[in-house]
Design goal:
Distance between the termini: 42 Å
Shape: elongated
Helix content: under 10%
Strand content: over 45%
Structural class: mainly beta
Low-confidence stretches: none
Largest sheet: 3 strands, antiparallel
Number of strands: 3
Number of helices: 0
Strand order of the largest sheet: 1-2-3
Amino acid sequence: MVKGPDSKANQWEISYTYPLSKRTSLWVGYNKIANEAQAAYNFGVNNYTIAIGGRPQGLAFGAWHNF
């Protein structure tokens, strides 16, 4: 846990979903965390260690089908 001055972060995400049919869709998304000078927030899905003040980002895509 990060505490003190300059230990905040902002997170942005943009995503888009494209329907192929009534039951099937494709999606894509971009996500970014902007840590301040003393922050080290990261995505909670991996054990990647981020440097203090780092700016992790990622691109994700997928598809789903409702049965």
